[in-house]
Amino acid sequence: MIIGISIPLSIVTAFIGMRLAGQTVNILSLSGLIVALGMVVDSSIVILENIFRYEHEGYSPSEAAHTGSDEVGGAVFASGATTISVFIPLLFLSGIIGIIMTDVSLTIIFALGASLLVALVIIPFLATHLHIEGLFEDERTPEQGGRLRRRSRRIGQGLTGLERIYKRGLYWSLSHRFFVVLLSVIILASSVLAVGRLGVVFIPSSDSSEIYIYMTFPQATRSMIRTGGCSMHRLLLLS
């Protein structure tokens, strides 16, 4: 529930920043919001997971919120600031590219900045006051019924299975380091060669489903074209 609250808070705060910057809601700004939508919850998830971990270890809700957010707050802020700094140079572009990228970049910057604010300030506050008793009970306790609890157990079992697969793959990679490094070098070299084969265009061509016909007639046939335009149009449609 806390993560669900952080999404609209970040988006609404981004809208406030857009209003102060004189932006409007258009196709470009909405595209920026779509790009940023998957990133606005990353910081909140990291902060909330660390708070839950400390609360599961026996800390009080306020102590867990303070310790958990303080421990990973610097890393979360550095990660978000790094992502934001990538889009800042796009604001200085000029021409048609600048018109397109300014709205997109500003929207992403506002959304990511709002997500950092929510993750570092709002999430610890909500984790302290929206504490749910019994949330961290041992997973081996008997099932108490309820469709939601059963689905949560199934999701937990699926995540546990993915974690086991990841551990096996990690152990295998660490025990076959030469093969992993060689495979990485081959993939990198193939990527560099593939870049040279890609075409570079400003805007990709598209099919507009339109046909343009340019005809040149002698000057004496001008009146005939005017009177026979409908017949010519029907002829083109039938053909």
What does this structure look like?
- The protein is mainly alpha-helical and 239 residues long.
- The chain has a domain of 134 residues: Multidrug efflux transporter AcrB transmembrane fold, CATH 1.20.1640.
- It is 72% helix and 0% strand.
- It contains 9 helices and no strands.
- Helix 3 packs antiparallel against helix 4.
- The C terminus is likely disordered.
User: Which strand-content bin applies to the residues?
Assistant: under 5%
Average per-residue pLDDT, rounded, comes to 79
Supply the CATH class of one domain.
Mainly Alpha
Q: What is the string of helix and strand elements?
A: HHHHHHHHH
**CATH fourth-tier homologous superfamily of one domain:** Multidrug efflux transporter AcrB transmembrane domain
- Biggest β-sheet strands, sense, barrel: none
In total, how many beta strands?
0
Count of individual helical segments: 9
Net shape = extended
Low-confidence stretches: 132-145, 223-239
CATH fold assignment of one domain: Multidrug efflux transporter AcrB transmembrane fold
CATH architecture of one domain: Up-down Bundle
Tell me the distance between the termini. 61 Å
The percent of residues in helical segments reads over 70%
Overall SS class: mainly alpha
Instruction: Tell me the Rg in angstroms.
Output: 29 Å
